[in-house]
């Protein structure tokens, strides 16, 4: 399953669960993918402020949250997750970017704020 498909299914399931949310291990089991792939999706959704997470002894609990100033079913926010190209900008400095297989790690200075947006052709 492609990361795009995992993200789409994760979003659907988290929206469906609503305020109750769900555990990351449960999400991986339902989707039928390894937890490490779910971690990739969680990182993206969290960076885009689409989910809220709470850590506990049972793992990480995930909650869907509508982005500030948008409707819960915002297609433009979803578009940013499935775009083939994205633009990353920051108020601070990016001091390292590393391609790690199917993910990219971006390291910022301590006071930097990150903005991710789709580049639509």
Q: Could you please describe the fold and organization of this structure?
A:
The chain is of the alpha+beta class and 121 residues long. It folds into two domains: 1-69, Winged helix-like DNA-binding domain superfamily/Winged helix DNA-binding domain (Arc Repressor Mutant, subunit A); 83-121, no CATH class. It is 36% helix and 31% strand. It has four helices and seven strands; from the N terminus they run H-E-H-H-E-E-H-E-E-E-E. The strands form three sheets. The chain has a three-stranded antiparallel β-sheet. Strands 4-7 form a two-stranded antiparallel sheet. Strands 5-6 form a two-stranded antiparallel ribbon. A hairpin with a 2-residue loop joins strand 2 (51-56) and strand 3.
Can you give me a brief rundown of this structure?
The chain has four helices and seven strands. The chain is an alpha+beta fold. A hairpin with a 2-residue loop joins β5 and β6 (103-108).
List the helices and strands and how they pair.
Blueprint: H1 3-17, E1 22-23, H2 24-31, H3 35-47, E2 51-56, E3 59-64, H4 75-82, E4 86-90, E5 94-100, E6 103-108, E7 114-118
Taken from the alpha-carbon principal axes, the silhouette is globular
Measure the end-to-end span: 25 Å
| Spatial ordering of strands, largest sheet | 1-3-2
* Arithmetic mean of pLDDT: 79
Q: Which fold name fills CATH's third level, the topology of the largest domain?
A: Arc Repressor Mutant, subunit A
Number of strands: 7
What is the helix fraction of residues, given as a range? 25-40%
Radius of gyration: 15 Å
SSE ordering: HEHHEEHEEEE
Largest sheet: 3 strands, antiparallel
CATH superfamily of the largest domain: Winged helix-like DNA-binding domain superfamily/Winged helix DNA-binding domain
- What CATH architecture of the largest domain do you see? Orthogonal Bundle
Number of helices: 4
